[in-house]
Amino acid sequence: xxxxxxxxxxxxxxxxxxxxxxxxxxxxxxxxxxxxxxxxxxxxxxxxxxxxxxxxxxxxxxxxxxxxxxxxxxxxxxxxxxxxxxxxxxxxxxxxxxxxxxxxxxxxxxxxxxxxxxxxxxxxxxxxxxxxxxxxxxxxxxxxxxxxxxxxxxxxxxxxxxxxxxxxxxxxxxxxxxxxxxxxxxxxxxxxxxxxxxxxxxxxxxxxxxxxxxxxxxx
Length: 219
Known about the structure:
Blueprint: H1 2-25, H2 29-50, H3 57-95, H4 99-119, H5 124-154, H6 158-175, H7 178-202, H8 207-218
Helix pairs in contact: 1-2, 1-3, 2-3, 3-4, 3-5, 4-5, 5-6, 6-7
């Protein structure tokens, strides 16, 4: 069993060296994910070794100390992977032109964050990152529908523009922050009211025209 303890000690030193190297060289996120997996393998093997009845008290202490160090490395590399992957995917999503591509790529960033949050649910930085990505998705959807509404209004398709603004308002109301709902919601509602007024004017269906029409019939 001494051989097994020595093997785990050597594995621990190798992990620590790889970890320091990854941090020093600023490797891509996947390298940190690979290190997380190596840490998981080490912990699994150490736990199996711990179950051996022939393991000495000294060996058990050494294994437990190694496990604690590796758990720290494991957490560090998973969080580094999640942050780095989410950052890269969010940047990629911002460069996309089509809405569905933006949302699809941003959702991949969310998946990275959520997978880390399942293991470390109290990690505040991950929660902040998740909120930022969700806000990006919402703002992208709202901007998309507002742009379509503006195009329709420019062409004189007022009903279509109103419907597009309503789509934007739906996503803003459902997913937006309180501040965005208040500011953006007011702006969109105001645009809808203006379009309704234009639509009524275009049809000659304003309150004034109705009043004049009624007055004419009365005369």
